[in-house]
Design a protein that fits this description.
alpha/beta; about 45% helix; seven-stranded mixed β-sheet; 36 helices
């Protein structure tokens, strides 16, 4: 297709101000009193129907009301539902059931509902909890009970409770079963949109399997569709992230090349059967990419003459109205019709967290539910005005929303409502009675119980929240007037558009400090602006001259001379200088990103993250310095005297930093030492000298006196000379355990004061994965932890320990996901893995790969391009004990374990002597707590990746062979750079205790 057939790429502000949007919406949503009265009457009738209906079987709403997510039982039930059915082995299933049922009181839970679904589930859960009491194990009471009722009976009862709930969420486990159930006789022909359940693709095989599943379903649906015309025909919902293993903005060219033809092929098949074909909504960072894919597919000439192509849009996204405008322009350009499903949104919590982590200016979604509801009505009005070119589909279970849309739509048709299968039965049954001409479509999930799990929990979270209409509509204790309160009235005014308890990402750490500013790569304008800034920045790759021993000694002498004036600079003034440095670094981030890519081989994502971490270090230590080094701490004591404990600098600190974080760790060390009132001689890694030089120039420009900060370039011999100098007062070091030992020995051998060594070294970092873990989540986190930054992080995953019962599937997915990573030029935003640091590092890694190829089972042997590249490799070991040293690169070692051997696994990890980072993937809280208690590891990450510690949030540092502590980026770090001084003053020495004598009684 020619580029001329496509509209301009979608663009709109990613995270605009809530107040500005609210001002516009509040001005546009007012209705006449007569309209409001009709809406109230309609909504009241629908709510009455919900409250009076007696469904003997019960539905999802009954379960949500019975087990509120604000209760312990509700949370335990959600986690059970998410994971139990995928656990294959009895031992883990029993431990999981015990763990979750022990968190609630299912035995004494008195059901409020007469519905069979609720009572059957409550009965099964109560029976199971009677059998499995908290803290009891198969060797205790449970063992005795098992002799009477049998553990299989306990397990079966709980699994059946989960299946019973699941059966009411899904229409069928196969498309044929779903179609058979959909053909059940009813008063009016039912409309369905079938959703083939599953997570997004992680591997090429996943994407092909999902494609085949969609194609098979379209064929089956089409042959069963009958002869009615659109829109009175069934449809299918397609998830783009299920059709491509790297569905992300930075892989734009690849996605367009590979995914668009797949989407067109499915759309052509849907057209052949004249079905409704809906592209499902994705997360906010994928919106622009999704619209690019949709634009290209919709423009294909083979789809002309078909009105069934559609997409879902989300009202909680602030860009929803802009998307409608874009779709309108697209349909006009091609003189075609489109079906548009308006939903409220399903990933709200994820969107909030992502924006906070990225340090964005605002949120892409509304933080108040009332703003989403207000925007939904505004977007509904917009869609209705675009009929008949646009066929609106309003997905809602909210009686007020339904009534409002009925009023806005008037008497003309050309729209429909949509509901989730298993939800909204009473509401839509009453709607059908009152408005026989109104049609609705049921969004019907299809898939196995294993694929259902993530979907199930998402629906529970969406509809079980305390603010959800579904959660409270049937509660007679909630006045109907409360449910009829308009979103505009709840919002009130533009200044209340944002959630009062959810700070903007930039203000996440206020009032102590500002969050470092990042960008969302899924926002095309922001990414292009950053790339343009990088292209325009100047790089300084001039030859660096190493210092000699005499110059190193002279730097220490000069720093010692500068100590007195710097240490007497107030803590407030020192902190202000570091804040200034952070601001300068943020302004010049493009030049530092350029240098990190050129000298450090950093990908764009890694380089931006490192600049942000360096900024965070400066601001965090500045804030801590103000708190810890200003006035001292007044100590308790007897009357008539003052006792103050204060911190002060030690003298000259030598800071020796590594090449893998040549800006963040370098500035972290230097800024901490300076904040504490020390002067610094900094010796960066010989591989990355220019980054350090530029950072020192920036610090000097920010106000750090040249006498307080000195830069010495050179290799390990220069570092050794600095450490051996008799005038230094401390060393802060990040690097190998061997070098840390050498520094420690040198310091110990010197006469004179005993000076501190603050060392952070590496580790054989492990991740433990049990059978309750979600495979897709494990794959994401393992690939991120093992291969990001080419595995050149101290925290990177080296050893993956997977429960044998699920190991084959887990390893297969991890291998497939790793195989999709792109190696290449780190300046290319699409690159996932850049080069290793130098030829020496590559040779060492290549040697390890050669040895592992003969000693271990090879699961993945990636192909490396020319240069200092090492492709991802995955080796399976016979035992975890085969890995005896840290391998600093993109090489993952895997070992299996049996559930019965879990204690041995923990002992194997402990015996390495390292204790830097540890990952745990499990839904069993007791298991997680057991691991944490058993292993002395500095940073433990549960059900997430195990890299990227955030300053002031996840203080970083290890135990044993992994370092000395205290943790960098934590509240105890600065004290190690200082000495403590107690000053005691006899305040009564001048003739009595005046304060005591003149005090009030």
């Amino acid at each position: 297709m020619s580029p001329d057939s496509l509209p301009p790429p979608f663009t709109a502000p990613y995270a605009p101000d809530d107040g500005a949007i609210a001002a516009r919406l509040l001005a546009d949503t007012a209705m006449a009193p007569a309209q409001d009265a009709r809406i109230d009457a309609t909504a009241t009738r629908l709510i009455d129907a919900i409250r009076t209906r007696d469904d003997r079987f019960g539905g999802v709403e009954d379960m949500l009301r019975e087990y509120a997510l604000s209760s312990k039982e509700g949370l335990a039930l959600m986690v059970l539902a998410e994971a139990l059915l995928r656990v294959p082995d009895a031992r883990t299933a029993d431990a999981f059931i015990e763990d979750k049922l022990g968190q609630g009181d299912f035995i004494h839970h008195e059901t409020k509902s007469s519905a069979f679904l609720v009572n059957a589930s409550a009965w099964a859960l109560g029976i199971s909890q009677r059998a499995i009491q908290p803290g009891e194990t198969p060797t205790g009471t449970l063992g005795r009970l098992a002799k009477r009722i049998g553990l299989p009976a306990v397990r079966t009862a709980t699994r059946q409770a989960m299946r019973l709930m699941g059966s009411h969420f899904v229409l069928g486990e196969t498309i044929d079963a779903a179609l058979a159930r959909a053909r059940a006789p009813s008063e009016r022909p039912a409309r369905y949109s079938f959703d083939m359940l599953g997570e997004g693709a992680r591997t090429a095989d996943d994407a092909q399997r999902y494609f085949d599943s969609y194609a098979s379903a379209i064929s089956a649906i089409g042959h069963a569709a009958g002869n009615r015309p659109l829109p009175d025909r069934p449809g299918i919902s397609v998830k783009l992230s299920a059709l491509h293993p790297r569905y992300e903005a930075v892989s734009h060219q690849r996605v367009m090349r590979e995914l668009v033809p797949r989407l067109i092929a499915l759309a052509q098949q849907a057209k052949a059967h004249d079905l409704n074909f809906t592209v499902d909504a994705e997360e906010a960072d994928r919106l622009e990419l999704s619209l690019d894919v949709i634009d290209a597919a919709f423009a294909d000439p083979s789809l002309v003459g078909w009105d069934g192509f559609g997409l879902a849009i989300q009202a909680y996204q602030k860009r929803c109205a802009d998307v409608i405008d874009h779709i309108d322009a697209l349909t006009r350009r091609h003189d075609r019709k489109m079906m548009v499903r308006l939903v409220k949104g399903a990933y709200w919590d994820t969107e909030i967290k992502r924006a906070q982590e990225r340090g964005l200016a605002g949120y892409p979604v509304f933080t108040r539910k009332a703003m989403t509801d207000l925007n939904y009505v505004a977007c509904a009005r917009k869609l209705l005005a675009l009929r008949p070119r646009i066929f609106p589909q309003f997905a809602t279970h909210n009686a007020l929303t339904v009534a409002t849309i009925l009023e806005l739509a008037g008497t003309s048709g050309s729209y429909e409502f949509q509901r989730l299968h298993g939800m909204g039965d009473a509401l839509y049954e009453q709607l059908g009675k009152d408005h026989p001409a109104i049609r609705w479509r049921t969004y019907a999930p299809v898939g196995s119980h294993r694929d259902l799990l993530a979907y199930l929990v998402r629906r529970l979270l969406e509809n079980g929240a305390n603010s959800s209409f579904v959660a409270i509509a049937a509660d007679d204790a909630v006045p109907i007037a409360t449910l009829l309160q308009r979103p505009a009235a709840i919002v009130g005014s533009p200044d209340r558009a944002g959630h009062a308890k959810i700070p903007l990402p930039a203000d996440l750490y206020r009032p102590e400090r500002a969050n470092s500013h990042g960008i969302e790569f899924g926002e095309r304008a922001a990414l292009n602006k950053l790339l343009a800034e990088i292209a325009a920045s100047k790089s300084d790759m001039d030859k660096v001259v190493d210092a000699n021993a005499a110059q190193a000694g002279a730097a220490v002498t000069a720093a010692r001379a500068g100590f007195a004036p710097w240490s007497h600079t107030t803590a407030h003034d020192r902190a202000a200088i570091l804040d200034n440095a952070a601001d300068l670094l943020e302004q010049r981030r493009a030049s530092f990103i350029t240098l990190l890519q050129q000298e450090g081989g950093k990908t764009l994502d890694d380089a931006l993250s490192e600049v942000r971490e360096a900024i965070d270090f400066c601001r965090y230590y500045a804030a801590q310095g103000r708190r810890q080094f200003s006035d001292g701490e007044l100590m308790p004591g007897p009357t008539g005297e003052s006792n103050v404990l204060s911190l002060r600098g030690r003298g000259v600190f030598v800071a020796i930093s590594p090449w893998n974080f040549p800006l963040a760790i370098f500035l972290g060390q230097v800024s901490a030492a300076l904040t504490a009132g020390n002067t610094v001689v900094a010796k960066p890694a010989e591989q990355t000298p220019r980054i350090a030089a530029r950072a020192v120039r920036l610090l000097h420009e920010a106000g750090v006196p040249r006498s307080a900060l000195h830069l010495i370039q050179g290799d390990g011999r220069i570092g050794a000379a600095l450490v051996a100098h008799p005038a230094i007062a401390g060393v802060v070091f990040t690097g190998s355990t061997e070098v840390a030992r050498s520094i420690n020995r040198t310091l110990a051998a010197k006469d004179g004061p005993i000076v501190p060594l603050i060392a952070e070294t590496g580790g054989i970092n492990a991740m433990i994965v049990d059978a309750t873990a979600l495979p897709e989540q494990v794959a994401d986190d393992v690939v991120m932890s093992a291969f990001r930054s080419a595995g050149q992080r101290c925290s990177a995953l080296r050893l993956l320990l997977v429960q044998d019962d699920v190991a084959d599937r887990m390893i297969e997915m991890i291998v497939g996901a790793a195989d999709e990573l792109k190696l290449g030029d780190p300046a290319d935003p699409a690159t996932h893995i850049g080069p290793v640091i130098d030829t020496e590092a590559k040779q060492k890694l290549d040697a390890h790969i050669a040895r592992m190829t003969t000693e271990a089972r090879v699961h993945l042997a990636g192909v490396s391009p020319a240069g200092n590249f090492v492709a991802p490799h995955i080796f399976e070991l016979k035992s975890a004990r085969q890995l005896t040293e840290e391998v600093f690169g993109p090489i993952l070692h895997v070992a299996r374990y049996r559930a019965s051997e879990f204690d041995r696994v923990l002992q194997d990890i402990s015996d390495t002597g390292y204790g830097l980072t540890l990952g745990v993937h499990s839904r069993i809280d007791d298991m997680v707590e057991r691991v944490i208690a058993r292993l002395p590891v500095g940073n433990v990450y549960v059900n997430r990746n195990m890299i990227g510690a955030v300053v002031g949030v996840q203080p970083f540092g290890g135990f044993g062979l992994s370092g000395t502590g205290p943790k960098a980026g934590g509240p105890h770090y600065l004290a190690r750079f200082a000495t403590e001084q107690t000053v005691t003053i006899n305040t009564a020495a001048a003739g009595g205790n005046a304060a005591l004598m003149t005090g009030d009684e």
